[in-house]
Amino acid sequence: MLLFIVYLTSEPQTGFAREIPQGTGRADEKHPSAASDAGPLLAVGTIEPVETAEVSAKVTGVITRIMVDPSSHVQAGTVLARIDDGPYAIELERAKLNLERARANIAIRQMQVNLTKQSLERANSDFNSGSIPRAAVDAAQSNFETARGLLEVAKVDAGLAEVSIKKAQMDLDATSLRSPIDGLVINRRVKIGQLVSPSANDHGSLFLIGDMRRMQLRAPVKEEDIGKFRVGQTVQFKFPSFPGKVFKGAVVRITATRVHDESLFTLVCAFENGDGALMPYLTANAEFDIGKTDRVGR
User: Fold this and answer.
1) d(Cα 37, Cα 77) in Å, to the nearest integer?
2) Which class for 103: exposed (0-12), middle (13-18), buried (19 or more C-beta within 10 A)?
3) Tens of pLDDT along 230-252?
4) Is the entire prediction scored with pTM above 0.85?
5) 166 close to 24: Cβ distance less than 8 angstroms
6) Same-domain check for residues 69 and 199
7) CA atoms 16, 226, 223, 3: torsion sign
8) 103: part of which helix (H) or strand (E)?
9) 122 with 233, same domain?
10) Which of 83, 175, 194, 216 has a CA that sits 20 to 30 A from residue 35's CA?
11) DSSP bridge pairs for 215
């Protein structure tokens, strides 16, 4: 019986499946690999959540509070940290005052429209009776059109003020950094007093949250061995830190890349972490059953 060992390292291009004749503990080119006569296929690596979410700053400011530590369990919407909200609260109040002023201006402009409309109606009446010249009617008409134009400008200003309020409210809300998913705080890269900004996000997120309900392991495989694996192939996961406990999953994806004129393939294997006992980056021993397939969501 033959065992296939997948050695996983931090550099995927170096960890490939190779054939190990049972009892020799080394590769033997005289025994070519074949799925029909091979035993279980084995891989060793670290696990990680299938779904992760990065939390970064959307506004600029100084961190005033940090609410969670690494390995804290959080729910979607949980506040992870707070940015100094003073400047953004002031900006929101300014936007609200601008809206009040814009609405007051609308009332004034509407009054002017009403007055110029009445003046135009009187001018038309007086012109029809022959008491004023046509020029007086034209002047009244011009005043009315100007008043209507200024009213429309005032309405636009009010609309812009409403948009400013929404933007100011969004910025104020963004001073609370919240988790977008239920999960575990895997990493925290921020401290109290630190200045954060959207432009600083290029250096990495402030928090990394992982949904611990579903985990995955990635195993690189050489081109000559990829035929031994398939999507749906049953996988059993065992952990040195949890002796006697077995987690069942399957191969959910087989990806391909091209590096230095060499084709590299990676198996993505997923399984359920039902009780949430497993932590990210635990070492896992994965055993692939070449004779069974299973259905596990990708």
Assistant:
1) 52
2) middle
3) 999 999 999 999 998 999 999 99
4) no
5) no
6) yes
7) positive
8) helix 86-128
9) no
10) 216
11) 49, 271
